[in-house]
TrEMBL record:
Assembly and interaction partners: Homotetramer.
Domain Enoyl reductase (ER): 7-293
Any single Pfam family the record assigns to this protein: ADH_zinc_N_2
Swiss-Prot/TrEMBL keywords: Cytoplasm, NADP, RNA-binding
Matches recorded under Gene3D superfamilies: Medium-chain alcohol dehydrogenases, catalytic domain, NAD(P)-binding Rossmann-like Domain
Name the UniProt record assigns to this protein: NADP-dependent oxidoreductase
Listed PROSITE patterns: QOR_ZETA_CRYSTAL
Annotated PANTHER family: QUINONE OXIDOREDUCTASE
Compartments where located: Cytoplasm
Length: 301
């Protein structure tokens, strides 16, 4: 799946391409499922993300994937062809993709489930570190029902951090099931947040134009981090767009899955040929959990 011009979902094309190969320190997988993340459609639109310029054209898409190892690069140990893994790489909307970081898939996890974890967990752990919230404090999460929000809520709960999450009416019980105090967007939302308790730090995960209100609720721009509002720096708020330690995020994901502390539902799985529809649905917002693309035998789990 690639695009030759920046634009809407309609620019995506399913095309033939040469197979990538695993260089030193890399592995190649036969992709069974690929995660769909907001960064994917931002790249497709040609957005400048932090210090990163728009992707050169033509370009492929996708960071996250789960599949079966079929090629191991020089210097790689502990993995062999036939192993089921999930991780992060480049241009994962494809039949074959090269991963730069990976972990064995936990027993009982489907390819579709596994493909949605790498980037959302890396992002969740990164922004929690950047915003500096500590056990016993309260974190406000704007846009809490999506993939990153779902991960943030569960990591925070495991760390003893109280969370207030905002989301649409249909996702209120979902947020509560993840341990958060929940409230809706819309007129009066800041008052509803205050009634749930003082806010020590806040995360903007949806880019809904609420950065100024988040600063007001926390009392300081340095206590707010956004991953979705490119104007945040103009308001003194940190925009977090550079990936952190993916290997550490994968280790944390596996550990939390084994302890039963983490579950992010797959809202919908699409065939690879329907990537444009997946992007359109993702951009429409009101997402619960994650969206993934199924490739090859991916639907078999």
């Amino acid at each position: 799946m690639s695009f030759a011009a920046y634009g809407g979902p309609e620019v995506l094309r399913l095309t033939e391409a040469g197979e990538p190969h695993a260089g030193p320190g890399r592995i190649r997988i036969a992709v069974r499922a690929a995660g769909v993340n907001p960064v994917d459609w931002r790249v497709r639109e040609g957005q400048k993300l932090g210090a990163h310029p728009p992707a050169p054209l033509p370009a492929g898409l996708g960071l996250d994937a789960a599949g079966v190892v079929d090629e191991v690069g020089e210097g790689v140990e502990g993995v062999r062809p036939g192993d089921r893994v999930f991780g992060e790489g480049a241009e994962t909307y494809a039949e074959f993709a090269v991963l730069s970081a990976w972990a064995p898939m936990p027993e009982g996890l489907s390819f579709a489930e596994a493909a949605g974890y790498p980037s959302v967990m890396e992002t969740a752990l990164r922004v929690l570190g950047e915003v500096g919230v500590r056990p016993g404090q309260r974190l406000l999460v704007s846009g809490a029902a999506g993939g990153v929000g779902s991960a943030v809520l569960q990591v925070a709960r495991a760390r003893g951090i109280a969370v207030t999450g905002t989301a649409g009416p249909a996702n209120q019980e979902y947020l509560r099931s993840l341990g958060a105090d929940a409230t809706t967007y819309g007129p009066g939302w800041t008052g509803r947040v205050r009634r749930l308790g003082p806010v020590d730090a806040a995360l903007d995960l949806a880019g809904a134009g609420v950065v100024r209100e988040l600063v007001g609720l926390t009392g300081e721009a340095g206590r707010v981090v956004s991953i979705a509002d490119l104007t945040a720096p103009e308001q003194g708020v940190r925009f977090s767009g550079t990936a952190g330690d993916v290997w550490a995020a994968l280790d944390a994901t596996v550990a939390m899955l084994h302890r039963g502390e983490l579950h992010i539902p797959v809202t919908r799985a699409y065939p690879l040929a329907e990537a444009a529809r997946a992007h359109a649905d993702s951009q429409a917002g009101h997402t619960r959990g994650r969206r993934v693309l199924l490739v090859g035998e991916g639907s078999a789990g």
